[in-house]
Automatic annotation (TrEMBL):
Pfam families: MipA (PF06629). Keywords: Cell outer membrane, Membrane, Signal. Belongs to the MipA/OmpV family. The keyword Kinase does not apply. PANTHER family: MLTA-INTERACTING PROTEIN-RELATED. Its main location: membrane. The keyword Membrane applies. It is found in: Cell outer membrane. It comes from Jiella mangrovi. This is MipA/OmpV family protein. It comes from the Bacteria. The lineage of its organism: Bacteria, Pseudomonadati, Pseudomonadota, Alphaproteobacteria, Hyphomicrobiales.
Length: 287
């Protein structure tokens, strides 16, 4: 899997209300994307598994709300490409209590909560982009791996959650990304959860130059004209998800969406298509 695709895969897996992480709590609590419904169900599809079936290790996995899964994703080869590839997506996550979660995107810790408002700190990473990810990137060089530090604020009102996050990359692009949006989730039956999400992403000069700018040296090597990408909104995203409880512990989740590059990101010479569709299917098991 190319590094740019892997980075995007994690972003959608985690960024969409913690793509799988949201899907699993969805199996437990209605107000947090739950499969439960107001009318009583004689045999809920999802029940907490009996820890004794797994012994001590299984009991710990259950207490820590561990999820394992795998699937496949189709997405552009790099942000702005008009070519697509399908790649496998492994997944594992764990939630400790109601304040700490670990997943493929990194670590998120709840630091403050009052009423519908939750504030969290995040530690993650940016895998960067390799020149070899696509022919169109020849001569542009690599964007190195970096560690990301940031925070997130969210407010939940019924099925709607408003959120905003800021992440600073240390190393790699040395950039800063800010995302704001709204997500709606609703349980339609005891085993089916549907959701939709819309968001906008702002990027600073460093991020824009690393991924969309072309300096004099890159212009000579690649043949692209020089281009200075300045800070501003770089894309808007729209997506929809469906999560189905298959058995007591197994679930399947599908997501489809589209990102639209805007501003200097859309004007960059390396961008071959401003419209960036994607799709993801994952099958998971919750202990």
């Amino acid at each position: 899997m190319s590094s740019s695709l892997l980075r995007s895969s994690f972003r959608y897996m985690v960024g969409f209300g913690s793509l799988i992480g949201m899907a699993v709590p969805a199996i437990k609590q209605t107000h947090a994307a739950d499969f439960a419904i107001a009318e009583p169900a004689p045999s809920p599809v999802y029940q907490a598994p009996d820890p004794s079936r797994f012994g001590l290790i299984g009991q710990k996995l259950h207490e820590w709300n561990v999820i394992v899964g795998a699937g496949a994703m189709i997405e552009a080869k790099y942000e702005g490409s008009d070519e697509f590839e399908v790649s496998p997506v492994p997944y594992i996550s764990a939630t400790f209590g109601d304040w700490l979660s670990v997943d493929p995107g990194g670590i998120e810790a709840k630091v403050y909560e009052t009423g519908p408002f939750v504030f969290s700190a995040k530690l993650g990473y940016e895998t960067g982009r390799k020149e070899g990810d696509a022919d169109e990137l020849d001569g542009l060089g690599d964007v190195d791996f970096g560690v990301t530090l940031g925070g997130k604020a969210a407010a939940k009102f019924g099925p709607a959650e408003f959120f905003g996050s800021v992440e600073k990359t240390i190393g790699g692009s040395d950039g800063l990304l800010a995302v704001a949006g709204i997500e709606l989730t609703q349980a339609f039956t005891s085993s089916l959860l549907l959701g939709v999400k819309a968001s906008a992403t702002f990027a600073d000069d460093n991020h824009m130059e690393a991924y969309f700018g072309i300096d004099a040296g890159q212009s000579r090597r690649s043949g692209y004209r020089e281009f200075e990408a300045e800070s501003g909104f770089k894309r808007v995203d729209f997506s929809a998800t469906a999560t189905m409880a298959v058995t007591e512990n197994w679930f399947a989740r599908g997501e489809g969406g589209v990102g639209i590059l805007v501003g200097d990101a859309a004007d960059s010479p390396i961008v071959k298509d401003e419209v960036q569709p994607f799709g993801l299917v994952v099958v998971g098991y919750r202990f």
